[in-house]
Amino acid sequence: MKRTILVGLFWLTSCLFSFAQQISKDELIYLTREWTGERFEDGRPKVSDDLLRRMRLVTHDEAWAVMKGAGYFYQYADGWEIINPDSILIGRAVTATFMPGRPDIHNAIDERGKKEGKRGQNSWPVDLLVQGDVYVADQFGIHVNGPTIGDNVGNAIFAKSGNGIVYDGAVRDIAGLKEIGGFTSYYTSYHPSHHNQQGNLNTMLIGINQPTRIRQATVMAGDVVLGRDGGVSFIPAHLVEKVVITSEIVRLRDMFGHERLREGKYTAGEIDTRWSEEIERDFSQWLNDHIDELPVSREQIQDYLKNRTW
Any idea what the CATH number is for the domain that residue 209 is in? Predict the structure, then answer.
């Protein structure tokens, strides 16, 4: 019995310690095994820059429809305070998970980090960012004495990623953060206090690039963040291309449908329901006729036409 208890305590301690570490490459690859594309050195899915660029025209409605169809129902969160609300936030997620501070666990995590030359747990995930990333942090909504991001950390995030944050907690130095050009960010609240000041351990970092929860959404490292119109979608890496292509097709079909309605060629009932073969063929011809004038590349339209069926 004593041996069993000791083994159990060792296992529990190991799990707690592993939470404060960056997820292992093997575990990250395993949890994102539906992604078959390029990866970063640490195993994080690396959605292409081209797809990130094309994602800027995707709406939440379009992303939601694809994800729901694939069985992903918890990938959207809203109700945010926003820096640069008229801008769009696009990037690959680097995740961090914080919990309320507890001295024994915090100090153990901190001690090991110091042995590795690390200072300040709130900067550990920031050090991993590269261009095109978005820092996504579960700060468990803490307000007073909770902020782990102010204008110094914000500048570091922007310098490394060229992006902003999705941060379920309070930020500080809000005036300074708003001065960072391009720092489009979603956060829960503002408070002038600081985390873990004057010996009060209010927060502790327990996970880097582990699966994390942002309000009602589940986020995995490498997900593509789509922040716009007051909300944030977290799109699994393996669904990003489908989301983008679906959005582009919907955009083109809408352009065609609106044009034909203005011309009076079809009725609203014909355009609003499943299209007939005649309309589908007309749409394909319209794509060919306007291929160099449309907001989708010639190559993508040609690929679409090549795979057309009726």
Answer: 3.50.30.40
pLDDT value for 7: 37
Average pLDDT of the chain, as a whole number:
89
Domain residues for the domain of 252 are: 241-306
Residue 102 has pLDDT above 50, yes or no: yes
Q: In this structure, are residues 188 and 165 in contact, taking their beta carbons and an 8 Å threshold?
A: no
Average pLDDT over residues 162-171: 96
Q: Is pLDDT of 5 > 50? A: no
Task: Please give the structure tokens belonging to residue 60.
Answer: 């939440």
pLDDT in the model for residue 120: 79
CA proximity to 219, closest of 6, 70, 76: 76
The rounded distance, in Å, linking the Cα atoms of 193 and 250 is 46
How far apart, in whole angstroms, are the C-alpha atoms of residue 202 and residue 223? 28
CB 246 within 8 A of CB 296: no
Structure tokens at 31: 């949890």
Q: Are residues 231 and 294 in the same domain?
A: no
C-alpha distances out from residue 307 to 61, 70, 252, 280, Å? 24, 21, 16, 13
Report the number of distinct structural domains present in the chain: 2
Radius of gyration of the chain (CA): 23
Residue 26's pLDDT is: 95
3-state secondary structure (DSSP) of residue 305: helix
Q: What is the dihedral of CA 146, 118, 23, 235, to 10 degrees?
A: 50
DSSP 168-210: EEEES-HHHHHTSTT--EEEEEE-S--TT-TT---EEEEEESS
Residues 246 and 225 in one domain: no
Sorted by sequence, the CB contacts under 8 Å of residue 238 that are 6+ apart come out as: 32, 34, 35, 36, 45
What is the mean pLDDT of the segment spanning 74-95? 97
Q: How far apart are CA 75 and CA 234, in angstroms?
A: 5
